Amino acid sequence: MAREVLTKRVPFEHVTLLILYSLPTVIAMSAPFASLVGTLMTVGRLTSDNEILVMLSSGLPYRTVFFPAIVVGILISLLSFYTNDVLLPAGTIQFNRLWRRILVSTPALELQANSVKRFQDTVIVTGDVRGRVINNVIILDKTPDGERRVILARSAELKDGGVEGLSLDLENAFINSSKEMIREDFDYATAEHLQYWVSNEDIIQAATSISPREMSSRDVNTQIKNRRADLAVRINDRKIRTISIASNLESLLRAGPENDDWNRRSTIVSNFAREVSAIETIRDDRNLTIHVIEIYRKFSVPIGAFCFVFLAVSLGLMAKKSGQTVGFIFGNIIAVLYWSMLFIGQTLGLRAGTPPFLSMWLPNILSLVIGVFLAVVRVRK
């Protein structure tokens, strides 16, 4: 991001602020893994240097090792949660404000070579870029009259219109426009030169959208409640229509073949099946699932630091030699496995319908259970 911004001659202090506002995302995700690797290296070094043996021989119990690690794990969990729930949304707001100012002055940042860029009602597909000239441009948009347009151009020159937005001077353009509902009703035209504008409002809306991950837990929870209320209304409307269709079908079947609408029974059955399928589709709302997964993720990742403590101390106590090196290697392996489980859990939650709680909390549960089990085995020895 910094490289792209700097090449467009954006002031260096703006680039620095953009990176600064992006740091809460890194801190929120790295804190649990840092606690894992740090605890493993520390306890592993103490064990390999026989410091743990000296402590036990002096009459100190194992809780002397576990207690400070647990306290630090709790503090890191609280810090990670604060960063994720307070600093991350605040940083996102400041990032979007600054990015909006940069886009107003340098909107050319939004178009790159060989890319697909979506704005509010416009999709622009670009080919190779040489300087400000873009080859093989495809534009898909919607006119204020509701018509769909496809614009093809051999090349386009990108110009910065300042407060107006982006200007694309198209060469050898072909335009096809068709009605929204009647695709057979279409017009086409060609032009040697054509100027196409993308407003700053469309650019800013596309660039500064906020995902659930960048919201606070309270905002995500509010979004979940609103979406569930909206889904309940939509499902209720569909149920009313389904009951009405079922009632009509029952009346038709009771009347028998003598009814004038007897031949429409297959159509009514198809409509009934379509409404039932629509209800199931509404219930499986992807956006709602994304928000529910994110609300569990906002708590599971910070608390992962606390769960990692038991696992890290238990593994560190089993180190024989080169405790720091072994701790560093095992810490990174566990971090990769943990992150992979989070990613797989999120994918299964979205595509296979796995319960969101299990998808996000299973890595923590496994870390805690394994850590406690190894701790019990070590203490009993």
Walk me through what this model shows:
The protein is an alpha+beta fold. The protein folds into three domains: 2-104 and 298-380, no CATH class; 111-207, no CATH class; 232-284. 64% of the residues lie in helices and 16% in strands. The chain is built from ten helices and seven strands. Strands 1, 2, 3, 4, 5, 6 and 7 form a seven-stranded antiparallel β-sheet that branches. Helix 4 runs antiparallel to helix 5 (200-207). The longest helix has 43 residues, at 63-105. 27% of the residues are buried. The mean pLDDT is 80.
Q: Care to give the gist of this entry?
A:
This protein is an alpha+beta fold and 381 residues long.
The tally of structural domains comes to: 3
- Give average pLDDT, whole number: 80
Radius of gyration: 30 Å
Main sheet record: 7 strands, antiparallel
Helix/strand-derived category reads: alpha+beta
- How large is the count of helical segments? 10
Strand content: 15-25%
The geometry reads as flat
Number of strands: 7
Low-pLDDT windows of residues: none
Helical percent range? 55-70%
Keywords, separated by commas or semicolons:
seven-stranded antiparallel beta sheet; 381 residues; 16% strand; single chain; 3 domains; 10 helices; alpha+beta
Question: How does the SSE layout of this entry go?
Answer:
Blueprint: H1 2-7, H2 12-48, H3 51-57, H4 63-105, E1 116-118, E2 122-125, E3 129-130, E4 133-142, E5 148-160, E6 165-178, E7 186-199, H5 200-207, H6 217-255, H7 265-283, H8 286-317, H9 323-351, H10 356-380
Antiparallel strand pairs: 1-2, 2-4, 3-4, 4-5, 5-6, 6-7
Helix pairs in contact: 2-4, 2-8, 2-9, 4-5, 4-8, 6-7, 6-8, 8-9, 8-10, 9-10
